[in-house]
Design goal:
Helix content is about 25%, strand content about 20%. The chain is an alpha+beta fold and about 300 residues long. The two termini are about 30 Å apart. Bound molecules: flavin-adenine dinucleotide. Flavin-adenine dinucleotide (FAD) binds next to strand 3, helix 3, strand 8 and strand 12.
Length: about 300
């Protein structure tokens, strides 16, 4: 009989998750850890499995609405799993799941690797970007991803690779959103041989165009709703005069109507109510069911 792994030292109990999301809302994780490397993450996943605990992984928490009541089971935050290896000649880039996307975009630009210029304004991790197929300004993760290394929490001792074409990528969608697998690292192939100054200039210009049109200084999760193509969610919301609409301290941003900002001490319940209110108004006026892009944790029993 195999002994159950003992409780790893990195584990903490009842850790408030609001500090781990860009919205700055959310209740406590029953169990919480920030693994410092893949071996520690694997040990933590094995422990959760041995205890029969639900396990979920978060990155920078920049696309997450976490319930005020918190989240049962073990929540792993990957933001310490940083690091990347970039080859200037081949364009091959391997990045740990917790590597910040803007950091990777800047590193690539400095080596004259083109492809991630759009990623500099997205405050997520590589793991979160793969799960969400994050994208902006005409580019997205799926365009450059070769493969990911993932962990099945039910078999933590045997991580495996998936190729990009196995991930069912679509607009802000990947197969990983329906799986319980944890992304450990990702490999990209970028376009090598560009002038580093030009790639860096385009990267900086992309960041500037976003920070000048979006409420970057306030806690938010970026765009709340998926664009119901060919329509833009922000335009639909703005057309109804909903900029500035507020529930508690959650507000439809006066700067960009597809952003909901936390003006101070918003609760997750305020944000969830505002999302529902906006959805109802857009449905009533335009007959369009806006779908949230943001992922929820702790809103369903056991999840
Ligand atoms: P999280 O928010 O932590 O998690 C998102 C989902 O991925 C969750 O379901 C989580 O469980 C899962 N997950 C995260 N890491 C892992 C992992 N290692 N293994 C398994 N599952 C994991 N998004 C865009 O696409 N385009 C934009 O232009 C954009 N602009 C933004 C601007 C602002 C100011 C903000 C705050 C957000 C913006 N976003 C944008 C949203 C967000 O940054 C992206 O969705 C990002 O990819 C989320 O990464 P994350 O690490 O924060 O993931």
């Amino acid at each position: 009989m195999v002994a159950a792994p003992s409780c790893p030292p990195a584990l903490r109990q009842e850790v408030n998750l609001s500090a781990f999301t860009t919205w700055k809302v959310g209740g406590p994780a029953e169990w919480f850890a920030e693994p410092g490397d893949q071996a520690e993450l694997i040990a933590l996943a094995a422990w959760a499995h041995s205890q029969g605990l639900a396990l979920r992984c978060i990155g920078a928490g920049s696309n997450l609405l976490i319930a005020d009541a918190g989240v049962p089971g073990l929540t792993l935050c990957n933001r310490r799993l940083q690091g990347s290896r970039l080859e200037a000649h081949t364009g091959l880039v391997e990045a740990e799941a917790g590597e910040p996307l803007p950091t990777l975009a800047r590193k690539a630009a400095r080596l004259g690797l083109s492809g991630l210029e759009w990623a500099v304004g997205i405050p997520g991790t590589v793991g979160g970007a793969v799960v969400m197929n994050a994208g902006a300004q005409g580019g997205c993760t799926a365009d450059w991803l070769v493969s990911v290394r993932v962990l099945d929490p039910a078999k933590p001792e045997a991580p495996f690779d998936l190729q990009g074409h196995e991930l069912d990528f679509a607009y802000r969608h990947s197969r990983l959103q329906a799986e319980s697998w944890i992304v450990l690292s990702a490999t990209f192939r970028l376009d090598a041989g560009h002038d580093p100054a030009s790639v860096t200039a385009l990267t900086s210009a992309n960041l500037h165009s976003r920070t000048s049109t979006q409420p970057y200084q306030q806690p938010s999760c970026g765009s709340v709703f998926r664009n119901p193509e060919p329509q833009k969610a922000g335009q639909l919301i703005e057309s109804l005069g909903l900029k500035g609409l507020q529930i508690g301290e959650a507000q439809v941003s006066p700067i960009h109507a597809n952003f909901i900002v936390n003006t101070g001490a918003a609760r997750a319940a305020d944000i969830a109510a505002l999302i529902q209110d906006v959805q109802g108004r857009v449905m009533a006026s335009h007959g369009i069911a806006l779908q949230p892009e943001v992922k929820r944790l702790g809103f369903e029993p056991g999840r």
